[in-house]
Amino acid sequence: MIEDDASHCSVLLIDDEPFAQDIIAHGLENCLQHTLRFDTNPERAVELAREVDATVVLVDLRMPDIDGFAVTRRLRLDPATEHIPVILLSSEDDPDIKARAFAAGANDYLVKWPDPRELVARVRYHSGACVARRQRDAAFVSLRHSQEQLAASQWALHQAQKMEAIGQLTGGVAHDFNNVLQIIGGNLQLLKLMGGINEAGRARVDMALAGVERGAKLSSHLLAFARRQPLQAVVLNPGHLLREMDEMMRRVLGPRARVTTEIAPGLWSTTADPNQLNNVLLNLAINARDAMAGEGTLTIRAANLGAGSARPAGVAPGEYVMIEVADTGRGMPPEVLERAFEPFFTTKPTGQGTGLGLSMAYGFVKQSGGEIVLESEPGRGTSVRIYLPRSDAEPAQAEAPASAPLLGGLETILVVEDEEDVRSSTCALLSALGYYVLEAHDAGAAVDIVESGRHIDLVFSDVIMPGPVSALELAAIVRERLPHAQFLYTSGYAEGVLSHEGKVDASVNLLQKPYHPDALSARIRHLLRRSNTQQAAPAHLGLT
């Protein structure tokens, strides 16, 4: 049988006469659910009331050292006992004394010794009122806590929606910006290839190309924040990456700063894009340097976070590799901390920062399936913790970069691009390198060329294009009709097309816009050599 807490009485009796305990205990026999604590020392009344969690206190009025009035006042002054009902017991049935009792804070007044039925009724009444008040107060506390949680959830939802909206905007802007950069950069490179430019003109072209490179990095950061940067994720051990970056970190921080690296033994592996992770850590180090004005201590930690380990709010249960970058700089006030992940938000003077370092880190970590936690206080530095999910796979072995010469060829390349200016500059560039170039304004037109029977060695296609035929469908048709032809994608971003959960499959060949002619030439030659090798293998084995 489940007992009703509201009917249980916890009675404290303070009386200098021990026989009072027997009388009260006998009177409460019919109060089925009760506990009785007796003490002759009124000095301990407050302490005992807290100890037994009293719901009613019975106090004798006349005691040698401290009378019932004083005990009642003491109970009322203590926050833990101020609402416990107090019943004064007295042998005096005097209206003036009763008035003084109520003035001192008593809830009731009983003349010794009351009939047990009256005693039980009054104790039950006052105890029930005490329990009801406690339940009400607990409900209010619970309600306040729920309201605080709701407010925190609403704020978090608002922040997430704001960041998502900003991400969609920045992703679209970066995509169009990459196409513009490709047009500018492609035509500038064509000018250099055509020759006939004097030294002053060449210097100007090189300066403009340097500006294109800066724009490409800016766009890359925007895409990273928007989580639309295709990630070439591999299994890696962050400890190796941090050790390799140690010297670079020291150069970034300068001679007056101290760099401490703490990598836990047996660090787990995780799945991430090593180049992007490198960029994130480098940006965090640059932020730390600026916050410390070139001097202070930068601490880089890497540790395992087990399933049962304590974790910050917002980090889902699971096993993680935690990477922390902490500095001893000036720190951030709450209003700055709240906006720190927003793109272009910066407290640095004009020209000294783009405000994309933390936003890029935020986007990369989220796209990698992890969490990022920022903690900072003015004058106490800043800590950025990155939580990346653990991988049970073995780290991938890094491949040595190909040292192929950047040359053209005589093969046939089909360029598929809906942006006319981008297509024009790319076709002109490839033609200048010696290739025979076919062009199509969308995937549907490219399918017509493929099905016409034209010989094609490589298809270089944009990912996002209008029309009923997608780039993926075009690739499937090319594989079916031209099994020896290579396929190279290009895009300002490949969100939702080539990428799955932000990650591009290792089998997909992707060259991100804006691309440098050297990078385009190298990728095309690499793919064509691979194609020639694959076709030559059967003949070498006598299988033709």
TrEMBL record:
Signal peptide interval: none
Keyword Manganese assigned: no
Catalyzed chemical reaction(s): ATP + protein L-histidine = ADP + protein N-phospho-L-histidine
Keywords: ATP-binding, Kinase, Nucleotide-binding, Phosphoprotein, Transferase, Two-component regulatory system
Keyword Repeat: no
PTM-bearing positions, type 4-aspartylphosphate: 60, 462
Name of this chain's protein: histidine kinase
